[in-house]
Design brief:
The complex is a heterodimer. Chain A is mainly α. Helices cover 73% and strands 0% of the residues of chain A. The termini of chain A are far apart. Chain B folds into 2 domains: 93-283, 6 Propeller (Neuraminidase); 290-478, no CATH class. Chain B contains 4 helices and 31 strands. In chain B, strand 22 and strand 23 form a beta hairpin. Classes of the chains: A mainly alpha, B mainly beta.
């Protein structure tokens, strides 16, 4: 039963992708609805700017739509979309180096986040700002999109071990800056 | 897709912080608008060079490949114009339909049939009865028979793929009519509570109730004049005509509601904000001689096509709201489009049924019938009136046998020739070139139809789109 269910789900996803690729707006809108939030989160972590993240995700959707017909494996859709968003955000962040002030959403009076957590968020924002955009993309894909190292490597043009080593190195740096407690 | 190696406490904390940190980016969006923007973005965007699966290739190589690809694409365009390389548009529309009580979608030509909801129909419960696309094609409103000896329908609001469900249950009564607001954010539901037995064969009048349901929650009831009732019957064929008694104007300002008041058909216009409800006859300039039985809006939201029947005299009219807001020079001007006067000396009886205005507002499609009691023939026709030329073209027709029962009632039986045209369920294709219509299928039991397609200019035979259908709606992006 499970295998059949999985197959049907994959078939449905494949059909949706095919419909979207041939210009079906509704099918593509359904894909957008399913993945946009995580793509926006990834792009925001990489770029550090809501405006850049919005631009990056919109650009990512334009790329995604034009390339959907090349996607053979529906299971690859989510990691692929996440990596496109990360890549777009990375490019835009690099092109925006003039900016020296990054946006950090300041909690309002009704924000449930506690003061220590707010402090940790500020620390995280500062630590991320000091990372290379490529490293921020690794962090976003691993800890926001929750992709595994092998998938991250495949989507970013790295070997699985190469991605793991690089992730380990970035993580060590963040441990140092944020405190491993 | 998650990492097999469990995260250590620091990684767990980092993941939690990252989710909180990125929360401001998780803002609600209009998925369809985002999709449309992506699909219409300039093809030559430099971002195309940044494809995620090519990050390690040299940019110059990528640029070279893209240029080469463009050259090949241009050559292919020259050789195969009209192929898939043409600019992508919103498409020709999609069908949502009911078959055997389940809900299906398909392409406009009947291909790609996909069942999206199981209606759990059985011998007595009919499952889904009708469905209606929202104008943005993101939702489907569907009428579902909840079962029981008394007809109890519910209106379900589903996502376009059939997932999700918000059920609105007006209680026992006749099948509700539905109409979406042009912005797809609200659904007007006209229901008529009453005890309609499943084996009833006579019409039952119920007090009409008009509700506006907000897509994101909440609802509002608009009070209708006392005595506004609607025609409820247990006959399945009268359950299955979507959007029959309520129609939202294309400009979003009005909701037209059909009612039977003291046994006379009457339409009311309710302001979409519920502030006023007035008889249609008091709001139009009054070009017709007979009150409207059926209406359809022109795209401008100012004019209406109306059909009325008074003592056998049928009229198809264009009426305009006298409340202003319209273009006085717009064509067609208000007036009578066609009249079929009653001829008491003959044994013929004809009727014009539901009008359906073309997407451009230049034509009206209508189903008609003519009964010849001498020859025992019931002739149904799908007719298109060209409003500029005044010419009428019959684009499809069929002849069925007409018999008089012992009680003197006319009863239509088997098909003699052609493909009969059912009174409801006519739809224009988005480009106005084709019409889809329902043609009754022979056989006992719940009414089943074939959806047929025919050129709107006539002169060509119709083709089968889908068989075994109870009702359908053709949706396309407005």
């Amino acid at each position: 039963m499970m295998a059949r269910g999985v197959t049907m789900e994959a078939d449905a996803a494949r059909a949706m992708i095919e419909r979207a690729a041939t210009g079906d707006e509704v099918a593509f809108a359904l894909i957008v609805a399913a993945h946009h939030e995580d793509m926006a989160r990834v792009a925001y972590l990489v770029s550090g700017s809501l405006d850049l993240a919005d631009d990056a995700v919109q650009a990512a959707w334009a790329i995604a739509w034009r390339s959907l017909d090349t996607l053979r494996d529906p299971a690859r859709l989510r990691p692929w979309l996440m990596s496109v968003a990360a890549n777009e955000a990375r490019q835009m962040a690099r092109g925006d180096r003039r900016r020296t002030v990054r946006e950090l959403q300041v909690a309002g009076p009704g924000d449930p986040a506690s003061t220590p957590e707010r402090a940790a968020l500020i620390d995280l924002a500062n630590a991320l700002r000091r990372l290379d955009p490529q490293d921020r993309a690794l962090i976003a894909l691993r800890y926001v999109a929750e992709l595994d190292s092998a998938t991250i490597g495949r989507e970013m043009g790295l070997t699985a071990s190469g991605a793991r080593v690089r992730l380990h190195r970035v993580l060590a740096r963040l441990r140092e800056e944020l405190g491993d407690d | 897709m998650t990492e097999r190696t469990p995260m250590d406490p620091f990684e767990q904390r980092l993941a939690r912080l990252a989710r909180t940190y990125t929360q401001p980016a998780a803002r609600p969006i209009d998925s369809l608008a985002t999709a449309r923007a992506a699909m219409s973005a300039p093809a030559a965007r430099s971002a195309l060079l940044e494809r995620a699966w090519l990050p390690t290739l040299d940019r110059r190589l990528v640029l070279l490949l893209v240029v080469a690809g463009l050259v090949i694409a241009l050559a292919a365009l020259a050789l195969a114009a009209g192929s898939a390389l043409q600019p992508r548009d919103p498409g020709p529309g999609r069908i949502v339909f009911v078959r055997d009580g389940d809900l299906f979608v398909s392409e406009i030509d009947g291909t790609g049939v996909t069942r999206i909801r199981d209606g759990h129909a059985n011998g007595t419960e009919l499952g889904y009865l009708a469905a209606l696309w929202s104008p943005d094609m993101r939702h489907i409103a569907a009428i579902h028979d909840l079962g029981g000896p008394i007809l109890t329908p519910a209106v379900e609001i589903l996502a376009a793929d059939g997932t999700g469900e918000r059920s609105i249950e007006p209680g026992p009564g006749g099948t509700p009519s539905m109409s979406w607001s042009p912005d797809s954010k609200r659904l007007a539901i006209a229901a008529y509570p009453g005890e309609v037995s499943r084996d009833a064969t006579e019409p039952i009048l119920g007090e009409l109730r008009l509700s506006i349901v907000e897509l994101d929650g909440g609802s509002q009831e608009i009070a209708l004049p006392p005595g506004a009732t609607w025609f409820a019957s247990a006959l399945p064929e009268t359950w299955t005509i979507p959007d029959l008694g309520v129609r939202w104007s294309p400009d979003g300002k009005w909701i037209a509601v059909g009612a039977w008041n003291v046994a006379v058909g009457r339409w009311y216009l309710a302001a979409a904000d519920g502030s006023t409800v007035q008889p249609l006859s008091e709001l139009v300039e009054g070009q017709c001689h007979v009150p409207a039985d059926w209406i359809d809006w022109f795209p401008d939201g100012w004019r209406l096509a109306t059909v009325g029947d008074l003592a056998g005299n049928n009229e198809l009219c264009v009426e305009a709201l006298g409340t202003g807001g319209g273009d006085a020079a717009a064509t067609p001007e208000p007036g009578i489009v066609a009249a079929i006067p009653d001829d008491p000396s003959s044994n013929l009886h004809g009727k014009l049924n539901l009008p359906n205005v073309a997407p451009d507002g230049d034509r009206i499609a209508i189903s008609t019938f003519m009964d010849d009691f001498d020859l025992g023939r019931h002739v149904t026709t799908l007719r298109v009136y060209d409003l500029a030329s005044g010419r009428a073209t019959d684009v499809a027709s069929g002849v069925e046998t007409l018999v008089l029962t012992g009680s003197g009632a006319a009863q239509v039986t088997g098909t003699l020739e052609g493909n009969p045209v059912w009174m409801g369920g006519i739809a224009w294709s988005p480009d106005g070139r084709q019409l889809l219509y329902l043609s009754p299928e022979p056989g006992a039991g719940p009414k089943r139809f074939t959806i047929r397609a025919v050129d709107a200019v006539g002169g060509s035979p119709s083709s089968v789109v889908l068989e075994g259908v109870r009702s359908f709606d053709l949706g396309y992006l407005h």
